[in-house]
Specification:
By secondary structure, the chain is mainly α. It has 17 helices and no strands. Helix 1 crosses helix 4, helix 6 packs antiparallel against helix 7 and helix 10 runs antiparallel to helix 11. The protein is globular, with a radius of gyration of 23 Å. 37% of the residues are buried.
Length: 364
């Protein structure tokens, strides 16, 4: 941890005195703008002070920055309205202009709300609108302004591959400029689209190859998330936020092909065997989430298990009863899991080899 004008000892002293002198995060943001602190030091000081006041320093809470205040919500709504207006007005000239306008305006707004104001939620929204605008622009150029048709019987145009490559490059440039944690996940998503589109074109949409590619991409994203996690076991740096978004992306990429093969997403009513398989996979995912201390894995795959449980409980009753019982069963499971997360996680870590647990966050 390095300050621009203070040494490390003075940085720690500032952190310890934050509660006494009543410094707020906006004061530190102003210090970053003025050049007194660098951004990494500011984040470390806020995290340290929060843990110090709470009386615990550890990774178990899985915190990440989403809101710095209600102004984040207000600004995000305003930004959404502005970008919608840009898309509609520029899109009236041509769809390409609309998409390119959204990307350009998103970058320009990020120069203020992300680079200067350091607002969390608007930064996430602007990153997503930027990479989405870049991808849409490239696809529209490749298709001559026509919307991209996606479906099991429709072949993806080769332009999607170019669009994915350009989007990866755009995400990398955005990361170099603003370092918003979700940017790495956005780039990984673009690479996944690139891989799936390439396999779809090469195999003429063979379902098995596409599902295998999706699962392999999910495993690769998960491995990248663990790479960031293992380099920040205490979860006090930007790496933990990057890993959070990568885990959120990895879970559906991994579980969707598995659930697709069970017939869960085939459009019909899944069999009891298929639904039980889905539930067992989710329980295995729960054990993995406990081991690596990442609840994001469970949230990201939640929609599949809801559907599976509903199929099981409604097979002998009315649909209304199925929905109610699904909500009850899953709600009880998640509430009990969240309440007993720490002791359960300690037991899970005790079952793992010591060499592995030394790379995982310590149990609180």
């Amino acid at each position: 941890m390095v300050c621009l004008t203070f040494d490390a000892a003075k940085c720690i002293a500032i952190a310890l005195q934050l509660e006494t002198v009543m410094l707020e995060e906006r004061d530190l943001d102003a210090a970053v703008t003025a050049g007194v602190l660098d951004g990494a030091t500011r984040d470390a000081l806020v995290k340290f002070a929060r843990d110090h006041r709470r009386g615990e320093v550890g990774p178990d809470e899985e915190q990440f920055r989403l809101l710095t205040g209600f102004n984040d919500i207000f600004v995000t709504i305003a930004v959404g309205l502005l970008l919608t207006a840009v898309a509609m007005l520029a899109g009236a000239m041509s769809p390409v202009a609309g998409a390119a306008g959204v990307a350009a305006v998103s970058w320009g707004l990020a120069e203020y709300f992300t680079r200067i104001k350091r607002m969390a939620l608007p930064s996430i929204a602007l990153l997503l609108s930027f990479v989405g605008g870049v991808f849409a622009t490239c696809v529209l150029v490749a298709t001559g302004g026509a919307a991209l048709a996606v479906g099991p019987d429709r072949a993806l145009p080769p332009g999607v591959i170019v669009a994915a490559i350009v989007t990866v490059g755009a995400a990398w440039l955005h990361w170099q400029r603003f370092m918003v944690p979700i940017t790495v996940a956005a780039g990984a998503a673009a690479l996944t689209i690139l891989a799936v589109a390439s396999v779809t074109i090469l195999t003429q949409g063979a379902a098995g190859a596409v599902l295998l590619t999706t699962a392999l991409c999910g495993i690769a994203v998960f491995a990248l998330a663990m790479w960031f996690d293992t380099r920040d076991r205490a979860r006090v740096t930007r790496r933990t936020d990057v890993a959070f978004w990568l885990h959120l992306l990895a879970a559906p990429l991994i579980v969707h092909p598995v659930f697709q093969l069970t017939g869960l997403t085939g459009g019909g009513t899944p069999t009891s065997g298929a639904a039980l398989t889905v539930i067992l996979v989710y329980l295995a995912l729960t054990a993995l989430a406990l081991a690596i201390d990442r609840r994001a894995l469970l949230v990201s795959a939640l929609a599949y298990v809801i559907y599976a449980i509903q199929a099981l409980v409604s097979s002998g009753g009315t649909p209304g009863e199925g929905v109610g019982l699904t909500t009850l069963v899953l709600g009880l499971f998640l509430v009990l899991l969240s309440a007993a997360w720490r002791p359960i996680r300690r037991r899970v870590l005790e079952l793992l080899p010591h060499g592995l647990t030394t790379k995982l966050p310590a149990a609180a």
